[in-house]
Amino acid sequence: MITLLKNGKLYDPTHGKDGVIQDIYIRDGRIVAKPPNSEKINQTFDLSGKVAMAGAIDMHSHIGGGKVNIARMMLPEFQKTRNYSEPEAHVCTPNCSHNATPNTTDTGFRYIEMGYTAAFEPAIMPINARQAHLEMGDTPMIDKGGYAMLGNDDYFLRLLSNKTDQKAINDYVAWTLHATQAIGIKVVNPGGISAFKFNQRRLNLDENNVHYQVTPREILKSLSRAVNELGIAKPLHVHCNNLGAAGNYETTLNTMDASDSVPMHLTHIQFHSYGTEGDKKFSSAAAQIAEALNKNKHITADVGQILFGQTVTASGDSMMQHLNAKHANPRKSVIMDVECDAGCGVVPFKYRDQNYVNALQWAIGLELFLSVEDPWRIFLTTDHPNGAPFTSYPHLIRLLMDKGFRNEAFAKLNLDAQAMSNLTSLTREYTLYEIAIMTRAGAAKLIGLNNCGHLGVDAQADITVYTEQADYEKMFAKPDYVFKNGELVVKDGVVTKVVWGATHVTKPAFDIGVEKGLSEYFEKYHTIQLDNFKISDNEIAEDGRGKIMTHESKTRAN
Amino acid sequence: MTSANLKPNQIAATCPACSLLCDDVLLENNQNKLRILNNNCAKSVTFFEQNLSGHIPQSAGKPASLVQALTRAAQILKQAQQPLFSGLSTDVTGFRSLFTLAEKTDAGLQHMNAASMARNLAVLQSTGWQTTTLTEVKNRADVIVCIGTDVVSHNPRFFERFVWVKNAMFTDANKREIIYIGENIDTKAGISPNGTHSSLLTCRASDLPEITLTLRALVVGKHLKAQAVAGIKISDLQIVADKLKQAKYAVLAWVAKDLDFPHAELTIQNITETVAILNQSSSSHSGRAAALPLGGSDGDTSANNANTWLSGLALNDENVEHDCVVWVNSFSIEKLPPKSDKPLIVFGNLNCQFETAPDVFIPIATPGLDCSGTLFRVDSSVILPLKKVSENNLPTLSEVVSEIEKLI
């Protein structure tokens, strides 16, 4: 069966297509070359006057696993805010769940209704990976995947403090990817989550974890080297030390420096771009961070934009979340130490445009977007739900594409914050092509999804069709059509067919000898059997809905 | 224990009899008769060594074919305006299928442990908490206070597996300090391997609100005029407070089911807020502290988690109006369906007990015994697969539910 999408205006940065009118042919879930005239076209959609892009990919969104579920459990009030009336918070799609912690069904529906066809959970705690996959397995419509958290687990910290050779660390990292069914590796507050369990309350880049006598810099070097040498496409995903703290931009700059020219991704960088200028000792350091990003071509970042309204922050960073818990709104929080593996902190937040810090955080995020020159190295995220629910992406896209709209919103902010931001002097407006890079082509390239994020032959036929409008928020909130694996699943912004996406993973080769040390460790110190730690392919695929897609990793010489 | 070292009739299994989910259990299967070879406890023996023969569905108290029983169950559900799915003793897979059926039939969901689950949930939703998990306890805890519980009545191997261990990464396990507060407490398990006894402050369960509040005040550093509270000397409680403050990693544990008195959530909150005070960096405490809710059974943590991600809301203790009851009981055969004059459908372990015959009884396979499954451990962070360890041709809960869905 062949489906033809006729006369669409294509934005396909992978192939350099910037608004080219072209036909797309789909067969068996894939984009194919124009078939011979003898072949029958079964279905034709006329895209004349419409914009076609690949399905969008959210490369960082907390959609599954323990901390998200704790947030849901702790915040029943979120489920009752169906008539929520803060327009800044997010844009309503039809049947909007109106909250930061949608259930798994709503998560899939809200994503696909906006034309997103994949989302990646960026903080899978290895011991909790089974839960993350259970939840993602119950999330319909979209493809999924995740990054496994390392760097605060006692097994790794023991290896590092014992000066074990890099090969053993590489094997452990590769083993973890297999065991957790992940596609990337993340480190959160390197060494800090562990340090908090030993009662340290802050950890700077060159400060020792009191027990292990290793520094975050050493942890970052070891893990980024492992990721690079194993040939994992996705660079090490780094949530820097000192999240949210005034003056933390120096840590962020030093972290870039610690990368030693090995590719590294700095996540929700907005939360790590704060200076200490001004009366309130809190200022924007977006200019310094953007300058460093522009210079260091091996560094990528996603923004973690905040938008005003009620949300909840769910993070592995128990150390900093414990510190932030005093700002909780509503006033409650969960902080956990977990399994000598990691930690977790869930703190509800209400970002307010009249609050100096919140208003400046909003401006800092946008300053970063507009000052980083290369759209292939900066990604559109709100760190869902930490900065805002992902349902606010259309609003955020309009802020980036529409200078007038942005400046109007800026004029409503806390006046002291306005005085501390140069946002109105940044006149850049993102183009559709650049949006397609940030949300499609760039994200796919970053994660190593060769068949997603573009409209070339052999691509997975995940395609979103919009009608171009002056109001980009409206345009991106409600696509005309969304095709998932070649099937029409959304029409006029409403789901018309329920489908189940795949789970993307990578499985680099490793020496199985790594299990000797692990077995001894599990036997002595853990509380489950090593075999039960590992998630089999079957667990994801056996219900007939899930499917694993393994992506290649190319071992690099060290 | 890897499968490579096992004899052909031996199986390494995970035990769902309590929510510790011990996965170091070794079973022997002789012609479908199971025996536990090591690492057993009273609960696991009862569970694994139960008799698994004879399992005919019943309809109106009489033996029936599976098709007859399914048809009758579907009829009852179709006629009902608002069924109540209760018990919910099953694993994640079973719960997911019940959730879908509940959506289709407009049914309420109530776990057999709903009342005790609600006590913890009330605290989570009011102030939140700072908690830890079992591997952290095993490797870090140097002071453990068990409040209103001996733990072992619910989690028999708690001390064996997580406290008196040979190896702990960050503390000398043998020197751990165990303190109990409460009544009818079996303190045997709290004696260290070198014979050191635990401390016990005896009080009635109903006095725990006052005692935990006093302990919280002492940890804050308040000076109290009273000499005693509910029969316990303030000086004795001060000793506990001082030990908590001196600990490197203090753990305050409770079992919600044992706090069975009005407004027990306030007692739990006293415990969790004591932990929060100990963790303030400005406090005189030089270490860390963490709360540890224990107990749990019958897949309660699994049902709560799955309900939360599927619906967005935790599993509540809603005593809803209903006109028919579906009782699901996989793990605790002695637990009885709620008393009700409404039609009763039971999906359960073949040894399930009843006071009066249900309208329909369909025996189902038990996760971890005669079918595979997935369960959450009590600390919610660890999720373990359960194996099928014996053959029995019973349908699984999700198979039964999907057949019923077709008939409705």
Summarize, please.
The complex is a heterodimer of chains A (558) and B (408). With 558 residues, chain A is α/β, with parallel strands linked by helices.
Quickly count the helices of chain B. Answer: 11
What is the count of structural domains of chain A?
Answer: 1
Q: What is the radius of gyration of chain B computed over CA atoms, rounded to a whole number of angstroms?
A: 23 Å
Strand content of chain A: 15-25%
Topology at a glance:
The complex is a heterodimer of chains A (558) and B (408).
Chain A: E1 2-12, E2 17-27, E3 30-32, E4 43-46, E5 50-54, E6 56-58, H1 66-74, H2 104-113, E7 116-124, H3 129-137, E8 143-149, H4 154-161, H5 166-180, E9 184-188, H6 192-197, H7 216-229, E10 236-239, H8 249-258, E11 264-266, E12 274-275, E13 283-284, H9 286-295, E14 299-302, E15 309-315, H10 318-324, E16 333-338, E17 342-351, H11 356-371, E18 378-379, H12 393-401, H13 403-411, H14 415-419, H15 432-447, E19 463-467, H16 472-477, E20 481-484, E21 487-491, E22 494-495, E23 503-506, H17 514-525, H18 530-533, H19 537-541, E24 548-551
Parallel strand pairs in A: 1-4, 1-5, 6-7, 7-8, 8-9, 8-23, 9-10, 10-11, 11-14, 14-18, 23-24
Antiparallel strand pairs in A: 1-2, 2-3, 5-19, 12-13, 15-17, 16-17, 19-20, 20-21, 21-22
Helix pairs in contact in A: 5-7, 8-9, 9-11
Chain B: E1 10-13, E2 25-30, E3 33-38, H1 42-48, E4 58-59, E5 62-63, H2 66-79, E6 83-89, H3 92-105, E7 108-111, H4 114-126, E8 128-131, H5 134-140, E9 143-147, H6 158-162, E10 177-182, E11 199-202, H7 208-220, E12 228-229, E13 232-233, H8 234-246, E14 249-255, H9 264-278, E15 288-294, H10 300-311, E16 324-329, E17 344-348, E18 360-363, E19 373-376, E20 383-386, H11 397-407
Parallel strand pairs in B: 6-7, 6-16, 9-10, 9-14, 10-11, 14-15, 16-17, 17-18
Antiparallel strand pairs in B: 1-2, 2-3, 4-5, 4-18, 12-13, 19-20
